[in-house]
Amino acid sequence: MADNGSVTVWDALVGQDAVVSTLTSAAEAAALVATAGPLAAARAGMTHSWLFTGPAGSGLAEAARAFAAGLLCENTPPGCGQCPACHTVLSDTAADLRTVRPEGLSIGVRDVRALIRDAASAPSAGSWRILLIDDADRFTDSAANALLKALEEPAERAVFLLCAPSVDDVLPTIRSRCRSVALRLPTVEDVVAVLVREGADEELARVAAQASQGHVGQARRLAADPQARARRDAVLRLPSRLRRTGDCLAAAADLVEAATADAQAAGADRDEAETEALKTALGVGATSAGTRSASTRGGGRAGGGAGAKPRSIQVRGAAGALKELERAQKSRGRRTVLDSLDRALVDLAGLYRDVLVSQLRADVTLVHPDHADATAQLASAATPEQTLRRWEAVLATRQALADNPGLVPQLATESLALALRDA
Ligand SMILES: [Zn+2]
Description:
Elements: H1 17-36, H2 38-43, E1 49-53, H3 60-72, H4 84-90, E2 97-100, H5 109-120, E3 129-133, H6 141-152, E4 158-164, H7 172-175, E5 179-182, H8 188-197, H9 202-212, H10 216-224, H11 226-237, H12 245-282, H13 311-359, H14 372-380, H15 384-403, H16 409-422
Parallel strand pairs: 1-4, 1-5, 2-3, 3-4
Helix pairs in contact: 1-3, 3-4, 5-6, 8-9, 9-10, 10-11, 11-12, 12-13, 12-16, 13-14, 13-15, 15-16
This protein binds zinc ion (ZN).
């Protein structure tokens, strides 16, 4: 993977030069903690609470993770991407990084209290204890209040990294305590440049970047994976299939199935890599010779680190950590399916936008230039008003799924398919 020399953790942040410069200088300031103490780091520009914002696909999680790696990195300049600290952060197995994701609809006060307890404990390997909160827009009121107290008087070595779609999604009291890092959606040219640098053919890179509308992860998948391209093609052919009610229901089922397959492809490799990394860190599985004591990934460590533990305790701790990882992966899997479905709906919305653009003969670049034939066919078979209603129906379904995580995807897509036919 590192075929082009040394890749730093900052290279994952596509088209975010301003953000990278903010984060690298903060990480350099933070490094002063080891030699000159926390006060010197703070004076040099290190901050305890950060709020990362940006639209889906801008690389919010990647940016927060890169910063965490930069804070724990063992080399200068920080964020080398090569040292053990960088590796454990990127594989989500760093002892000093605790990640919180909502399992259900919200992050409750119990999760936040556990997080705050963890923030107060001393770092075990690096200089900082990092608390990464993936969906900081989903706190319950009492959880937000508990967190606020921790942000007001942070423990000396604690760093909170909050992620949310926009600053408006976070309570004013919380965001006023945080230093803000705003990511933007990378341009098509940014994405093309990255894909080409990673070895993709330029023409393919351009189609993938254009079709993904700035979503780097999606562009990468489209450029690298023929099956991902086939699934996108199937999604874009869907509008021409909607004649009878049975067709609509079948199309809706296909849409959900494609999203599930897409999510599995995206998640399987990562899950496996994480599990392997955790097993290695725990000294179980392939490398069983080690006598390293068990430590779960961030938080929940069983007491101090005094000497070797009896083997039975080690194994039990390891099993617990693996089980916890499995649960986190399952929860992420559900969310990845919804993310993939959302990508499919974005593709569909882009298609109807293209149809409308061609009906109005507007001189605008198409989102899906490789599906110009389908676009022309749909344009000639409908009025602009119908196209607009269809476009709106797709956007409304996206919104409904985003606002209501309890909504069954199959039902949402079935009513969408019927609405598209009847528009
Ligand atoms: Zn490093």
